[in-house]
Amino acid sequence: MTTSMVNDIYLVSDVNLSGMAPPASRRPVGHHHGDLRNSLLRASLELVGERGPHGFTLAEASRRAGVSVAAPYKHFADRDALLAELAAQGYREQQNRFAAAMNGIEDPAEQLAAFAAAYVKFAAEEPALFDVTFHAGLDKSQFAKLATAGDEVARLLLPVAQELASTPDAAFDLLLRIAAAAHGLAVFLRQGLFGAGNAVRSDTEEKAARTALAITRQNASS
Q: Can you give the pLDDT of all 222 residues of the chain as single tens digits?
């Protein structure tokens, strides 16, 4: 599999303080005992959740974290470098979730169905991480850690797809189609097109699993 293929799959693979006492979820994160880096990441993830990956500045992240505007540059060259770290965190979270979802399942088609459902669940439960991972428009060639984290997800999933395909290219195509379908359902869910609530989310996860199975069946018959 080429580097461009690995990159393509992730291109399938887009969160006013007022008053004297802001709500707890909007208060500056703060830092202590040298935890500046993690404080900035937490503050930035909050801002991604509120305004999207490109809706804030490093200065705003600094104020949210309760540090000076010069503080981020001790750890991040610019906002893209900070977003790349968050996106790498998003890929690691996906890898953990996908591995857990597929654990104990022997049938590769069912494994890919579990992956698709877990994809939708990740988007619903971690919307800020989902957005920064897929909608920040980061160039992976500039951030080695981000590229590595994305490759690890591919290395988890591609061997499963290869059990259902005759060639590496066919396996990549199969995985790409399943991921694209899951991504579309996840985005529609996030946009409220299916309604709201836990029941709707569960139903969308089931749709993703059913769609994955339909794609693998179609692939087997072609």
A: 444 444 444 444 433 322 323 333 444 444 443 588 899 999 999 999 999 999 999 999 999 999 888 888 888 889 999 999 999 999 999 999 999 999 999 999 999 999 999 999 999 999 999 999 998 889 888 999 999 999 999 999 999 999 999 899 999 999 999 999 999 999 999 999 888 888 999 999 999 999 999 999 988 876
201, 120 contact by CB (below 8 A): yes
Backbone angles phi, psi at 207, to 5 degrees: -60, -45
Distance, CA of 185 to CA of 214 (rounded, Å): 15
pTM for the structure as a whole: 0.81
> CATH number for the 3-12+86-221 domain, one of 1.10.357.10, 1.10.443.10, 1.10.150.110, 3.40.50.720?
1.10.357.10
**Where do the domains of the chain lie?**
3-12+86-221, 24-74
